Amino acid sequence: MASSRLRRSSPLLVAASFLVAFAAVSSAGKVAVYWGQGSGDGTLAETCASGLYDFVNIAFVSAFGNGQPPVLNLGGHCDPGAGTCAVYSDDIKSCQASGVKVLISLGGATATYSLTSADEAQGLADYLWDNFLGGTSPSRPLGDAVLDGVDFDIEQGGADHYDDLARAISSRCGGACLLTAAPQCPFPDESLAAALGTGLFDHVWVQFYNNPLAQCQYAPGDASSLENAWAQWTTGVPSPGTKVFLGLPAAESAANGGYIDADTLKSQVLPAVQGAANYGGIMLWDRARDAASGYGSSVRGNV
Description:
By secondary structure, the protein is an alpha/beta fold. The chain has helices spanning about 10-25, 45-50, 90-95, 120-130, 160-175, 195, 225-235, 260-275, 285-295, 295-300; strands at about 30-35, 55-65, 70, 100-110, 110-115, 150-155, 180, 205, 245-250, 280-285. The radius of gyration is 20 Å and the shape is globular.
C-alpha cells in the first residue's frame, strides 16, 4: 500500500517535467504544404507518408466565377476532364488515416477567376460541397474521398464576394469543414480582408514572399520587416481562435524574394514569431521544391 505521506518531488523529476513541457510547447507548431503544381510533387500518399506535413492543400481549382464553370487544374498529375484524377481518392484517404488534413485550394497566382455576385459565391460553395466535400455528384473529380475543407489562395480578381463564399461554405458544411486562407503579407490583404473579417477561418498561412516592394518579407540579413508584418497579422485577425502560419518558399527558386535559409529560420526567425498566442506553424510553397531541397525535414523539429 502506498504511504499517505506527501512526497517531495526531486529536482531531477522537476527538471525532467519542465523539459517535457518545454518540448511540447516548442514543437506545437504545424506544417502546411501545397501539392499539385510541381512535377516533383510525388503522389499524395508519398507526401503524407513523409511525416513532414499536417495539412496538404491540393492546388488548384483555378477557374471559377464570372459565368465560367469551376475547373480543377493539377498540372501534369492528371486530367480531370478524362476522369483520371479520381485515382487520388485512395491517396486522400490514406493521408487522412495518418492524421493529415487534406483541403482543396481555390485560386493561385496564374489562373482566371472572380466572383461577381453573392449568388455566384453560393453556386461555387454548392459545387465544392457536392464535388469535394460531403455532398454527392456524378462528377467528383477526386473520387469519393471527402476532403477536410477549402483553402482560399486568392491572388487576383479583386475582393468581391469571398466573404459570401466563406459564409456559404461554412453554412453548407454546418461549420464542420476547415476554412483556411493564404493572403499576401501586406496587411490587410486586398483580396481576402473581407473574407477574413467573417471570423470563420481556422488557419491563415500568410505568404511572406513574392512581395519584394511591400516591406513585409525577409530580406537577407534583415528580419525586421517580416517581424513587423507578423505582428500586424497576429494582432489583426478578427477571431482569437484563428491560427496564423508563417508562409515560406521551400527553396530560393520557389519565389521572388522572401526565402529564409533553414539555419536562419531556426535560429532567428522562428524564435521571434513563436511567442504569438495564435502562432500556428509554417506553410511551404510547394511540395516539389520541398522534396528537392529537404527544407521541411531540416526545420520540422523547430516549428
